[in-house]
Amino acid sequence: AATSLTSALASGLLQPAHSCFLRPHPFHLAAVRDEVVVTSGRKLAQQFKQEVRQEVEEWVASGNKRPHLSVILVGENPASHSYVLDKTRAAADMGMNSDATVTISHRYTPKEQLKKHTIFADIVISAAGIPNLITSDMIKEGAAVIDVGINRVHDPVTPKPKLGGDVDFEGVREKAGYITPVPGCVGPMTVAMLMKNTIIVLRLEEREVLESKKLRVAAN
C-alpha cells in the first residue's frame, strides 16, 4: 500500500496540473512557499473497507463459507505484532472470521524446526531469499505453495546464472496442489497490481479534487 501511494505521488508530480491530485508547486529554493499537501490514505482505506464488507456479505448470502483470515508472523518485531493486530481487527470489522496464528520462523530457523510448521500448513508462503529452502518433505499433500523469494542461482545446464525462488520447484510440484514458479508469478503480479493501484489512487484523488472545486464554485 505504501509503495502504491508513493508511485501515485510520483505519477502526480509528472502529470499536467489538470489531471494531478497534487497542487502544482514550482521547484524553487525561496524561503516562502505554499504549504505542503499532506496526503492521507485513511479516507481511501475506509472506502475500500466498505466495498469489501459488501462483497463479503454478498459472498455469504450466495451460500458460500464466510472468509477466514489466518496470519503467520515471521519474527518477533513488536511493530509487526501491532501491524498484525490491526489486520485481524479490520477483518472482523469487514465481516470476516479472524484468527491470528503466530509462527516464529525466519531464514535462521533450523530446517527441522521449520518443517514442524510447514508440514501441517494448507498454505506455505516463503520469502526468505534462500534457494531450495522449502522441499517436498516439508509440505503436506495438496498444499498451496507461494514462492515470493528471488535468488540468483547457478544453472547446472548452462554456465550462466538464473533466477530462482526459495522452493525446490521440481520436487515440490509433485506433491503440492498449487505452486507458483519463480520467475513468472508473484513478480509479474506485484508489478501489475502496483500499476493498477496507482491508477486507482490517481483517479480517486482526481475525483475528490474535482468535487472540491465544484463545492467552491457553488459556494461563490
TrEMBL record:
Domain Tetrahydrofolate dehydrogenase/cyclohydrolase NAD(P)-binding: 92-201
A Gene Ontology term for the protein's cellular component: mitochondrion
InterPro entries attached to this UniProt entry: Aminoacid_DH-like_N_sf, NAD(P)-bd_dom_sf, THF_DH/CycHdrlase_NAD-bd_dom
SUPFAM superfamilies: Aminoacid dehydrogenase-like, N-terminal domain, NAD(P)-binding Rossmann-fold domains
Domain of life: Eukaryota
GO molecular function annotation: methenyltetrahydrofolate cyclohydrolase activity; methylenetetrahydrofolate dehydrogenase (NAD+) activity; methylenetetrahydrofolate dehydrogenase (NADP+) activity
Name of one Pfam family that matches: THF_DHG_CYH_C
Biological process, per Gene Ontology: tetrahydrofolate interconversion
Full protein name: Tetrahydrofolate dehydrogenase/cyclohydrolase NAD(P)-binding domain-containing protein
Organism expressing this protein natively: Rhinopithecus roxellana
